[in-house]
Amino acid sequence: MTASNAPDIIMTGPLMAYAADQLRSRFTVHELWKADDRAAMLREIGARVRGVAGGGAHVRIDGALFDALPNLQLVANFGVGYDNVDAVEAGRRGIIVTNTPDVLSDEVADLAVGLLLATIRQLPQVDRYLRAGKWLEKAYPLTTSLRTRKIGIVGLGRIGKAVAHRLEAFGVPIAYHGRTRQPDVAYRFYPSLVEMAADVDTLVSVAPGGAATHHMIGAEVFKALGPNGIVVNVGRGTVIDEQALVEALTSGTILSAGLDVFEDEPRVPAALMALDHVVLLPHVGSASVHTREQMGQLLVDNLKSWFDDKGPLTPVVETPWPKRG
Predict the structure, then answer these.
(1) In a domain, 16, yes or no
(2) Number of domains within the chain
(3) In terms of DSSP bridges, do strands 202-205 and 188-190 run parallel, antiparallel, or are they unpaired?
(4) Is 117 exposed, middle or buried (0-12, 13-18, 19+ CB in 10 A)?
(5) Separation CA 122–CA 86 (nearest Å)
(6) What pLDDT sits at residue 5?
(7) Domain that holds residue 58
(8) Do 78 and 135 share a domain, yes or no?
(9) Which of 76, 223, 302, 323 has the maximal Cβ count within 10 Å?
(10) Whole-angstrom Cα distance, residue 89 to residue 94?
């Protein structure tokens, strides 16, 4: 394929050089997030664009963008979560959306277990205690333990199952809440999140974002979880009602929280950051060179496969392939 007839695609945000260089070698790439006047750029090139390489929060990929790209065929999203893309509207318009599942499941699951342990054993706080010279004065206070805990996983998808598999090695009871019971899973299923919270003392959320899960972990769940309760979230920040979480942590309704995701990233509420008994990470669940390169490669491979007339590799459920109906 020559440069003159290479398909035009838009990058909505920066990608690792590993992926971006591959895209530039195969496609005519337009970097939308760099444009001083995005509307003007879209008016100029919109009719030529047939693909989007999307990721991050730089540009919302929705009906307004689709209107500006009348010949758009494929949106390749960087990440397993794609709540930054209006996939339902894409499906209505015949546009395929792909994501990057599986390649990041193990990395995020590793981080989730690490964050859980860091929260339970207060590892960041212990580190700060030592660095401040306080160990010279007295030993750090005793913490709670994973040993006696019961874990409830919110969202038992690929990542949730990977988390559960790792936690099995610790010998802790595991339950899960989701939209439906999974017949091939031995863990106890709770159709009610509040009921599960009442029966466990630790929630690990890997639930996706979107309207169906918005603020599903809120005041009622925190109350059910109780004063020894711990919440860990590596899914989407919108799943947790952050204001209710701050209130629960401040009042002692629950014990602690470990968060890798937030409602309005990268803005984290000052009230959360002021709490010393929580662990906060800047959305680094999949942030290793190894995993991000695999994610980028899958994004590139989806675009290449589509424009080689081989179809998408990992279409999302809202835009199945082959097309049905």
Answers:
(1) yes
(2) 2
(3) unpaired
(4) middle
(5) 39
(6) 82
(7) 3-103+289-307
(8) no
(9) 76
(10) 9
Say what the pTM is. Answer: 0.90
Q: Are the CB atoms for 223 and 253 separated by under 8 Å?
A: yes
Task: Give the model confidence (pLDDT) of 197-215 as tens digits.
Answer: 999 999 999 999 989 999 9
Q: Are residues 137 and 272 in the same domain?
A: yes
Rounded to an integer, what distance in angstroms lies between the CA atom of residue 268 and that of residue 262?
7
Structure confidence at residue 137 (pLDDT): 98
Q: Are residues 16 and 28 in the same domain?
A: yes
pLDDT number for residue 57: 65
The span from the CA of 313 to the CA of 181, in Å, is: 27
| Residues in CB range of 214: below 8 A, 6 or more apart | 238, 239
* SS3 assignment, position 22: helix
One-letter identity of residue 231:
V
Residue 276's Cβ-count burial label (10 Å; 0-12, 13-18, 19+) is exposed
**pLDDT digit string (tens) for 62-89?**
999 999 999 999 999 999 989 889 999 9
Alpha-carbon span 53 to 113, nearest angstrom: 31
Q: What strand order describes the sheet that includes 202-205? A: 188-190, 174-177, 151-154, 202-205, 230-233, 256-259, 279-280
Same domain, 58 and 161: no
In a domain, 318, yes or no: no
- 61 and 120 fall within a common domain: no
How does strand 174-177 pair with strand 151-154? parallel
Residue 262, Cβ density class (10 Å: 0-12 exposed, 13-18 middle, ≥19 buried): buried
d(CA 253, CA 266): 26
Residue 288: exposure state from Cβ atoms within 10 A (0-12, 13-18, ≥19): middle
Dump pLDDT digits (tens) for 203-257. Answer: 999 999 989 999 999 999 999 999 999 999 999 999 999 999 999 999 999 999 9
Any idea which residues carry the catalytic annotation? 236, 265, 283
Tokens of 1: 């394929």
Angle between helices 17-26 and 289-307 (to 10 degrees): 20
Which CATH number belongs to the domain containing residue 272 in this structure? 3.40.50.720
